[in-house]
User: Fold this.
Amino acid sequence: MPAKPAAVRITKGWTANDPLVHVSLDLLARRAGLSQFSPRWLTTLREPLEETLAKVGADREFGRNAASVAAADDNEAVPWTLPLHRLQAVALL
Assistant:
């Protein structure tokens, strides 16, 4: 099984408490129409990336704002789903 991206970054010198250590910068680049994130960009983009992360978070994409439903055990309102990765959302369909 391949190492988790955060573990790979930590072995390359990133600190475990770096706010971007768990963020997929390559996915971000692909969403912007590029093939991958160049490490050279990090110096310039770190501050705006951290500011954006602080505002919107980095939770899984699907179900981040799930509607609340009554829990079966105590009727407390809870999200109907936890946030899901794309493949998890596809599996639900």
Summary: The chain has two domains: 5-56, 59-93. The mean pLDDT is 90. The chain has four helices and two strands. The CA atoms of residues 49 and 55 lie 10 Å apart.
